[in-house]
Amino acid sequence: MSDKKKADDSRPFSSRRLLEIRVKEIMNRRPRTVRPETSLEGLLERLLGQIEGCFPVVDKNQRLVGIVTESDILQVLHPSVHQETVGSVFREIMKTTAKTVSEIMTKRPVTVTPKMTIAEALNLMSEHKLRRLPVIEGEKLVGLLSLRDIVDLYRVLR
User: Fold this and answer.
1) Other CB atoms within 10 A of residue 32 CB
2) What pLDDT digit, counting tens, does each position of 70-114 carry?
3) Per the CB 3.0–4.6 Å rule, which of 39, 41, 55, 117 could disulfide with 34?
4) What is the band of 52 on the pLDDT scale with cuts at 50, 70, 90?
């Protein structure tokens, strides 16, 4: 092994390497999903059986129609109205009487594509205060990227 190669192997971790990796390389390609008509009871049972704290919501054609998170469930179980607009108060009240996923899900979630970089995904996560992003091609769900996926990659590359 040449001295140059040894020097390259001992260089400190570069976060640039992490940030240039594409979403498709680390996303969960088979996230567990729910349908809009899934009951809240069914959602709670499914939530107990997985690590992720969210479910992308898809229609019968795997088209992403929303996302439901632990925060949405918290609002159902323990409503607290801190918003000042009439629309947001109405939405909070509706969540307390919800019976299906479609009534509590976020209908237009922030998404990424498989070709986006981790830097782009982190920018969206930071800007919107999110820990998970559905990955779509066209309108179809093809994966889920979580902050945990990025942290795991960071630890491997380090």
Assistant:
1) 15
2) 888 887 777 665 555 545 554 555 555 678 999 999 999 999 999
3) 55
4) confident
User: Quick count: other Cβ atoms within 10 Å of Cβ 46?
Assistant: 14
The CATH architecture annotation of domain 12-157 reads Roll (3.10)
Range list of β-strands (E), the chain: 54-58, 64-69, 132-137, 140-146
Residue 44: name the closest of 125, 94, 104 by CA. Answer: 104
117 burial (CB, 10 Å; 0-12 / 13-18 / 19+) is middle
Q: Report which DSSP code applies to 51.
A: S
Domain extents in the chain = 12-157
Query: Which helix (DSSP H) or strand (DSSP E) does residue 93 occupy?
Result: helix 86-96
